[in-house]
Design a protein that fits this description.
Receptor-associated Protein; 313 residues; 86% helix; mainly alpha; single chain
């Protein structure tokens, strides 16, 4: 009897413990769920404004300029020929690929420039109150300048870069000659030029080395250099190097001959420019210098003659 009472009391205690554990777990689960919901609500309230203003957090270039550039580029492709992108890409290569200049940006710049100058010229002529003919001429000229502005900029970059390459080529070939004669290979000599000099020619030689490192042949890399420039001296140098590599001619002799020939051509160009000076100075001499000289020499005599005639009268 006593044993049954003890067993019954133990079962009752066990039932109480199990019920307490179940109630605690349920309460704890409800508490955790409530905390999670509170945290989720706070996060939602915190992230909601961020999502709403995410579009406005973008930069002005991403929100306005990039879509405008894309639309202007589409308009330019409609008005340009089918080969316009290829021609612009080649012009960019010859210009040295200026920073942040792409085919799409050049085309968009043409359209935007034409529109901006068109509106500016219309407003300017309206303020001045010019005649219809003058207004049409000014507006058409301004629109054409805006359309051709990026092309003119690229042409100027090509001209400046070509002049710099033409001026630096003899010194670069001399450095190559010294490097080859000291025992270096042609690739190592080109690397010396790219490392120890600055300017567009050094950049082109660096590109030639990179193309050779990725597996392109030396002749193909040098021909690519000739295609990316409009300097005749560079093209003749590339032709001589390709032929020397094909026929096994010693590179040092070819470099020495190329250096002397290029220096002779540069001296001839300087003499040619010097001979053009008298012809070029004729126009400013006639229209600027001689009138001032006539005024200074003949002015006092004319004044004296006028005074004489006025006194005689």
């Amino acid at each position: 009897m006593t044993l049954l009472l003890i067993l019954g009391a133990a079962l009752v205690l066990l039932a109480i413990v199990l019920i307490s554990a179940a109630v605690g777990t349920t309460a704890g689960g409800q508490s955790v769920t409530g905390v999670d919901r509170s945290v989720a609500l706070v996060q939602a309230l915190t992230n909601a404004p961020t999502e709403l203003i995410k579009e406005y957090d973008e930069s002005f270039a991403d929100r306005i300029m990039s879509p405008l550039q894309q639309r202007a580029s589409k308009i330019a492709r409609r008005f340009s020929g089918s080969d316009a992108p290829e021609r612009i890409r080649k012009r960019l290569d010859v210009a040295g690929n200026p920073a942040s200049w792409t085919v799409e940006r050049v085309q968009a710049g043409k359209v935007i420039g034409a529109i901006v100058l068109f509106l500016t010229s219309v407003a300017f002529t309206a303020v001045l109150g010019t005649s219809l003919t003058v207004r049409i001429v000014v507006v058409a000229g301004a629109t054409a300048v805006g359309w051709l502005g990026p092309n003119l900029y690229l042409y100027q970059k090509v001209y400046d870069r070509s002049k710099r390459m033409q001026r630096d080529l003899p010194d670069a070939i001399d450095l190559m000659t010294i490097s080859v004669e000291s025992g270096l290979a042609f690739d190592a000599a080109v690397q010396q030029v790219a490392r120890n000099t600055e300017g567009p020619l050094a950049d082109e030689f660096s590109r030639v080395l990179r193309e050779m490192q990725i597996g392109q042949g030396r002749a193909d890399a040098l021909r690519g250099l000739a295609e990316r420039t409009e300097v005749d001296d560079v093209k003749s140098f590339v032709t001589a190097m390709v032929q020397a590599d094909s026929f096994g001619i010693p590179i040092a002799n070819v470099l020495r001959i190329q250096s002397s020939e290029i220096r002779m051509k540069r001296r001839q160009r300087a003499e040619e420019q010097a001979q053009k000076v008298p012809v070029k100075i004729t126009v400013p001499l006639i229209f600027c210098i001689l009138p001032c000289l006539f005024i200074a020499v003949m002015g006092p005599a004319v004044i004296h003659i006028m005074d004489s005639f006025s006194g005689a009268g």
